[in-house]
Amino acid sequence: MVDVGIGFLSASLQLLFHRMASREFVDFVRRSKLDNLLNKLKMVLLSASELLNDAERTQFGSQSVRLWLDELKDAIYQTEDVVYELHSEALQCEMMGQAESGSGTGGIVSQVQGFFSSTSELLPDVVVKLRLSLKNNLDMLEFLVGKNDVVGLIKGVKASPFRRLSKTGLVDEEFYVFGRDADREAIVNLLLSDEEGGHRISVVVIVGMAGIGKTTLAQLVYMDIDKKVRKPFDIKAWITLSDELDVFRSAKKIYEKVTNSLDCCVGETFDKLQLKLKKCLEGKRILFVIDDVWNENPERWYALKSLFESASHGSKIIITTEYVTVGSRTGTVPNYYLETLSEEDSWQLFLKRAFNNVKPSAYKNLEEIGEQIVKKCRGFPLEVTSLAGLLRTELDPRKWKDVLKSEIWDLPQHVHFPALWLSYHYLPPHLKRCFAYCSIFPKGYKFQKHKLILLWMAEDLLVPQNNKTLEEVGEEYFHDLTSRSFFHKSKFYGFTMHELVSDLAQFVSGEYCLRLDDNYLKILPKKTHHFSWTIKEAHINKKLKDVLGEDYSKIHRKTTPPLTLRTRETHIKKLEDLSTEYCLRLYDECLKIYLKKTRHLSWMTNEAHKSKKLEDVPYNNSLRTLLRIDGQFGLNNKFLMHPNSLQNFQCLRVLSLYRVDAVTGLLDFIGKLKLLRYLDLSWTEIKDIPNTICSLYNLQTLLLHYCSNLSMLPGSIGKLKHLRYLDLSNTQVEEIPDAVCNLHDLHTLLLGSCRLISCLPTCMEELINLRHLDIRATSIREIPPQLSNLRYLKISSDFVVGTSSESGIKMLGELQNMCGNLSIKSLEKVLNVDDVLEANLKDEKCITDLSLEWKGNTDDSQKSWEVLNGLQPHINLEQISIINYGGISFSDWVGDHSFSRLVYMSLSKCRKCCHLPPLGQLPSLKSLSIDGFDMVERIGDEFYTCGSSTVTKPFKSLEKLSFKFMPRWKEWSFVDGEVFSQLKELHLMDCPSLTLNKACFPDSLPSLTCLYISKCQHQVVASLLSGQLPLLGSLYIGYCPELESFPERRLPINIHKIEIFGCQNLELFLEEGWPSNLKSLSVGGCGKLFVPHMQWNLQTLTSLTSLHFSCMDELVDSFPEEGQLPTTLTSLTLCHLHNLKSLNGKAFQQLTSLEELSISYCKQLKCMPKEGLPRTLTSLHLSCLDNLKSLNGKALVQLSSLEKLSISYCPQLPCMPEQRLPASLSQLTIEWCRFLNPRCQREIGDDWPMIAHIPCIRINPKLM
User: Fold this and answer.
1) Counting Cβ atoms within 10 Å, is residue 1180 exposed (0-12), middle (13-18) or buried (19+)?
2) pTM for this one?
């Protein structure tokens, strides 16, 4: 049993005391004569808080203490609700008092009288109810606190710092590691390459979650690096630091390790110890591993690092930690993020540990069970080894099956994963609450930081701090959780939470938070406070076994009454299927009984359930969150809600109606949700904002983005006095009313892509707390100069230069608060170049992304240069785009090495420039795009560095380089030494004059993984492919008509993806054949590459899974030939094969792994093969087949695995097959088929009976 929420309780009490101390709360309570009750409540809550430390100490050994804490948690939650309602009424009374006095002249006296009047009006029906609620909660808390003697708790026990379990040092002789060779090599290379880069001491930080193998990897490097370095280390030491990183104790521990003596530092001061340690390390090459670092305090880190300053060049330090920020402060190279083991490596590790010296082949039955057990470990070495150790001496298969079938697997993984639990337990209380709240989101959810902070804010999870806004506090919380690896930055956007961490969040929330999806349905516990509901696809029917039990007979729709929980208790036998309608009715019954205390509910829907209604959700006066989460079908997904649903949830603080259909009816009831703080109506069909929303006086966040029918805001929106975040982006709103300026608490106003908005209210300066204004992609041409008075405001804007004084470029100088993205357009309109200097971009530290764009007439090259020169940004810049620049050369600041944070640069359509700037000097540049330089003929030394520069490794960080549309570019020369060492992607497009000299090109591009060449001379292909490209995995060659063969008739052996289009003269003739690792091949318009009736040599490619043929008119009229394609193919695409008349059924039957088949624009194809298609098909797409007249229903019905069938633009296809389509189909799409469309209409179409069983049917493209 684990912590039931000590952190929750202490953080909750802290927020309760803060709210009860607010001025408006104290005034309201005193005037309502509730102060005696509140004073008693404070005292009993203080008494409860004094018991929490002892409860935390004793809960693990006492069932009674755990039960007591569980009840206390529920009581405090209820107390929060009452206090929150009291505070809300206090705010309402204050607002009513201000409104009543607003028109008078009585000043403060009038406001006070108004407050008393409004309070009196609420006394009869509100205060009486609140008094009763307070009394009930007070009685419950007094009862629980009075039980401290019974459960054995002592008041006033001081909190002791949590001590983590000691970590193991170096391993013994039985050290088995699998799957870490590449990681070991990578870290060794990082250490060695960093030495060459000039650092005297190389520091590599290994970052990863607890239990993932950081310590083990460090041990491998520790034992291996001696073999890699030229000179052995003088001193090697392994140090595990304490929790708090006490520098004196750390120095003592290091000195003891170095001198191999204990207690040698007794009585020493830190200064003396530091001198002794520095003298001991002076001139020595050291190798230190500092393991399991938790502390992030920068001052302590700098003090610790100073201890090693006397070590000689070539010294190495390896640090392991869960904290990302540790690396940023100590590492000399980027953090090394450790991933989980592959399934194969996990299995090898399990084999070695579990079977020891016994051959697994002698116990086949154990091997099969073991493979299933390893899959459940999800690549975490700690779990694999612990289970292998458990089974190591056990050869009885029944015992192994007991482990596999154990109910423990139904519990979150970290129950038997103490390292991960430890990571959570070490969090401060306020972070525990915020982390646990994330359990309402499904696994794999992409978190957006700012939206999650808004939710935390709405739920009162952020503890106010002096001189910080709640948004800033939330940023700090999120940063802390990210640095502790609870969140990871996604490769594409947002943040993700590891599956194990998601399990941990759900587990620590206990019965107060439960997430259900279609993979795991069970009866809800009575104590549930947080509930997440996920419905995916059409699988809810078969998943009901987990709710109802294993053996139930089939219940027929028309003959059986609606199921209730009572039905379950009677144990109906052999139930195998249940209609979705009854599933939802049963679910309602479950919810009505078990959701009485649920506090946070999220639900996710997907395509197959888009038409389902969430109606009759049970009454729950404690529900705080009703959150709609999108399913895997994203923007196509809508959901219906019954209009009466909302009146059941009077305590809601968070409501998301994102993409809910018919939302207007729901909004009629929304005015009753007086406690609502967060409302999301984005992507709905709302046309206007009703007055019911404008009466929500507690509302802090209102999201309306992508409400495409919303055209105006009401004047009453000014009543939302506590609104902090308003998102109107991508709406049809034409005007922002002046009433918005009454929202004095507003922090964020988003108007991006509101293209009909042409001006802002003239009274914007009244928004004294406004911090972020986004007006990009609007029609706003002039920014009110009054905004410069808002000292906290940061603006993201498209600034269109005008010709008047009010809209000129110097207006930017008056807005000393630009932030984030800034796009300056129409720079050709600058009349006076001196005005550019007044824009003063050089001092705008918060602009991270800058776009400078000229349009129309740019004939004056000198003026263009002067404008660009005057628009020099601050060196904090991270991204820049320069578009349609008319100068002959670039200003000196473009490419200056002082822009050390610049990671992305795009120079586009600079048609008059003859030379490129020295971009190789930019130390952090990762992506560079250059296109439309009509005058550039040569790229040489000037591109890499300027004459006075000391840069030795140009483009040392560059990972992606792209040249496009360079018609006169002929020569590309390179500097001596290492260049492009980190380059991963190289794109050369539309450079028809370029002729690369192989002798001048680098011998090796060691990091290149992707090469894209299009519309270039064949010498370019030859030169690039002749070099050493050890990591090249993806190759694209397009429209190089002169290319006849690959250089030396070979391709790099590691290539796994090849795309070749429009190379009419290219012949194969590869001496070594196709690369053996080839997985994906796409060929189009290469008539000589695949000649009919000749051996293509594809059948031997055992790794090939994807094949795409297009524009190959030379192919025979039947495809494919028998034995021509490998049996490993899983995806086949045939497109624009105009001579193709039939499909070779026998050859298709040989493709025993084929899952996806797409055929399009094959105008002579008339029917599917009579022999049928492979039964392994899961997806079939037929499009633009002008003469297709038959689907061959007999063959089609045999596709028992087919899930998706799409038929579009097939005008001659007369009807669906007479045979019913396969029962496995879950999606059918029919678009623009002249005969099929009317025949497949719901209920009335002739072919409807053959397709009615399919859950999701789209016809042009309406969902049926």
Assistant:
1) buried
2) 0.64
